[in-house]
């Protein structure tokens, strides 16, 4: 039976990337925390995510980059191909010329690496703890879990993802995630790298665009160069007909056949031979409905604050993990600065916070984070409008537009490259 954390500690609800990274970052500042995760075991679901250089800088700051790097494929460019005309329209720079480049790897690798680091730092991670309700009692927060237990702490951080219980139950009950009308289907396929149409040196990504969605094909593993991550994004207005499962699921039986047919209908007639081949070789398909959260509303209330997707989930655009990490690095710096024991001379003192301390820390957090997150959010929403089905003429226009955009913008992808959260004045 895990011991109860001291009431001065931080209760982190959700053991995804944001929650684990927060606990790790807090431990660097000597702030005790406990992570409560709903799933009974560490989750293995999730595709392969792309981490741009700014995100790798944050992981380096957290001390886990050297462990992660060998687990993924170094990615420096994303080529854009027109699937119907078999034309290479250009490429986005995904970190070419930077110290680290970018990295694509399975989400579970990031998760597992953070979990190891968190445990080594002595932080308790409790699985099978689904938070149901929270309340403020005097100078404490109390969280009630589905198994009948409760935890008390000085503050609560809701890192419980897009459908956050902490947001809906306490911080901002009005704000709900909405389905974007788009689903993603992903899986893995094996193919000899020299047969691919895009960059073949064991690294690289191609986005193959068509009139009815886009198909991402990418290297994703450090040591297995034959494994390609395949992800299709497609307009799909009526998600209720497919499933009510909001977090994504592995499709089986008849549903699996239906997904294969749908992906094949959209990409199986591609004029790029390897696109057709990779699609046909995916063994297991997973589906996820894409939701987004409006940016209006609050991120904190009393002694509770939201971070990561719980605060500002946006459709995937390759920068979200970096945004989550910047959130938690900044929040831990602010909690260290505004704790009552930060002025004390004894390093063994556990920090504590008055309501005024937390209000100062959270307000500053909001002021610094909101303009940056707002900008990324707007861009992500715009990008996802582009994956819905369009006419032949509109597609021709898009091909031309992509080519022009890459030519005029130089195609730099990593918005966060010039921004370093560690340089923010807290
Ligand atoms: C298909 C897809 C592809 C993506 N690709 C990229 C990419 O290439 N690059 C990138 O940077 N980002 C990408 N993202 C976004 C990125 O994965 C997320 O922004 C990030 O994982 C959010 O982390 P989080 O910890 O805030 O939330 P989550 O990962 O959702 O973690 C929340 C955790 O809280 C737990 N939880 C939920 N409710 C409770 C509760 N009541 N009590 C206790 N625990 C609870 C959940 O079980 C979960 O473990 C992608 C997202 C998706 C869906």
TrEMBL record:
GO terms, molecular function: FAD binding; monooxygenase activity
Residue ranges of every copy of the FAD-binding domain listed in the record: 8-346
Keywords, in A-Z order: FAD, Flavoprotein, Monooxygenase, Oxidoreductase
Alphabetized Pfam families for the sequence: FAD_binding_3 (PF01494)
PANTHER family: MONOOXYGENASE, PUTATIVE (AFU_ORTHOLOGUE AFUA_6G14510)-RELATED
Family the UniProt entry places it in: Belongs to the paxM FAD-dependent monooxygenase family.
Protein name: FAD-binding domain-containing protein
Species: Glutinoglossum americanum
